[in-house]
Amino acid sequence: MMSLDLILSPDLRTSSMKVSRLLRKMGGGYESLLLNLPREMEEGVMELASEHISCDEFIDEACRSRLIPEPVGSWEYALKPVLEALPQLSRRFPSLRMYCYGSSEHEFASIGVAVSFARLALKTALTGDVEVNEWRDALRRSLDVDGDATEAEAGAIVERVEGSSMCISDLGGRGL
Predict the structure, then answer these.
(1) Which of 34, 76, 84, 113 is the most buried (most CB within 10 A)?
(2) CA atoms within 13 A on the CB side of 47
(3) Is there a contact between 150 and 110 (Cβ–Cβ < 8 Å)?
(4) Residue 122: which domain range?
C-alpha cells in the first residue's frame, strides 16, 4: 500500500526550522522523502545526505549550476535548516530514499512573473492608470506557470512515491 504525507510549509525560515525539527523527530516508517527542490539537484541532495559535501558546498554548486535564481540569499535563508537536517536523517534512517520533485524552470518562470507584477505596480503608481488588460495577462501567465508547475511536480511525485512517503512542499503544494 502506498501512502503520502504532505507537509505544507511557507517559504519562511521559522517554518523551515519547524519542518527541520519535525524531520529530526520523525520515526522510521517512511521509505522516501520528497523535497521541493529542482530534480536536477537530486544527486547533490544524496551527496549532502551522505555527508560527502557540506550544506554550503551544496548551495555553492546549485548556484554555479544555475539551478536556483539569483539572488540566492532568501532561498538559502529559508531552506538551509531542512538541508542541514538531511545528513542526520540519513544516519538515523539509512534506507530512507530522498528525491527532488521541483523544477528549476518553474523557479525562473515564477521570478519572471513576479517581475511583471512589480513592473505593473510601479507603472500604475507612476501614471495613476491601471492597465486592466496588462494585469489580466500577467495574472493569466501566473496561473499558467503555477498550473504547469503543479502538474509537473505531481507527476514527478507519483513517479517517486514508494510505500510510505513524506513530501515537503511550499504553500503552492495545496494543489498537489
Answers:
(1) 34
(2) 15
(3) no
(4) 3-175
- The grid coordinates of residue 37 equal 527542490
| pLDDT tens digits along 67-107 | 777 777 777 888 888 899 999 989 888 888 999 988 878 87
Select the more confidently predicted residue: 175 or 5.
Answer: 5
Residues ≥6 apart with Cβ < 8 Å to 78: 11, 12, 13, 15, 16
What is the rounded distance in angstroms from the CA atom of residue 31 to the CA atom of residue 94?
10
Beta sheet of 32-38, edge-to-edge order: 3-8, 164-169, 32-38, 97-102
CA distances from 92 to 26, 47, 69, 79, 156 (A): 10, 16, 32, 21, 26
d(CA 46, CA 48): 5
**Long-range pairs, 169-176, Cβ under 8 A, ≥24:** 169/6, 169/7, 169/8, 169/9, 169/36, 170/8, 170/9, 170/10, 170/11, 170/36, 171/8, 171/9, 171/10, 171/11, 172/146, 173/6, 173/8, 173/36, 174/8, 175/146, 175/150, 176/6, 176/150
Q: Give burial (CB, 10 Å; 0-12/13-18/19+) of 153.
A: buried
Number of domains forming the structure of the chain: 1
Q: Is the pLDDT of residue 49 over 90?
A: yes
pTM listed for this prediction: 0.79
